[in-house]
Amino acid sequence: MLATVLVAIVAAIHLYILVLEMFLWDTKTGRKAFNLSAEFARDTRVLAANQGLYNGFLAAGLCWGLWLGESGVPVTLFFLICVLIAGVFGAVTASRKILVVQALPALLALIALLMR
User: Fold this and answer.
1) How far apart, in whole angstroms, are the C-alpha atoms of residue 115 and residue 37?
2) What is the separation, in whole angstroms, between the first and last Cα of the chain?
3) In this structure, are residues 72 and 66 in contact, taking their beta carbons and an 8 Å threshold?
4) Which of 47, 58, 110, 112 could form a disulfide with 80 if both were Cys (CB 3.0 to 4.6 A apart)?
5) Pseudo-torsion of CA 19, 94, 86, 7, nearest 10°?
6) What's the pLDDT score for residue 92?
7) Distance, CA of 66 to CA of 100 (rounded, Å)
8) What is the pTM for the complete model shown?
9) Using alpha carbons only, how large is the chain's radius of gyration in Å?
């Protein structure tokens, strides 16, 4: 049960990131979330939307794994590992905040899933 809840939280985080990057990037909300200037947000809007789509794929994979139930554990593990790697990479290359927002929840969900 704990693993399911944690995986669902990770999926929800990535759906929220999708919305921020695809639809709110150059709004006050998006600029505040990513600490962007209006000019930079405007100039990178298309790149952010592409990145948001990938976050949506991560969320979809996690939801798919949950939907499959017990037989979806390998799918869920794969997507949690993808999220964890993306979070660590983002923390190293972009912002350490990503380690807490993306990688840590994925790690906790991964541990809970493996300990079930």
Assistant:
1) 43
2) 9
3) yes
4) 110
5) -50
6) 96
7) 23
8) 0.93
9) 15
Cβ atoms of 41 and 93 closer than 8 Å: no
What would the two tokens of residue 25 be? 């990037």
Alpha helices in 1-116 (DSSP H): 2-22, 28-34, 38-43, 45-68, 73-93, 97-98, 104-115
CA 4 to chain centre: 16
C-beta separation of 17 from 109 below 8 A: no
User: In whole angstroms, what separates CA 82 from the centre of its chain?
Assistant: 9
Q: Quick one: which H or E segment has residue 57?
A: helix 45-68
- Give the helix/strand (H/E) hosting 31: helix 28-34
pLDDT in tens, the chain (116 residues): 999 999 999 999 999 999 999 999 999 999 999 999 999 999 999 999 999 999 999 999 999 999 999 999 999 999 999 999 999 999 999 999 999 999 999 999 999 999 98
Structure tokens at 77: 């593990």
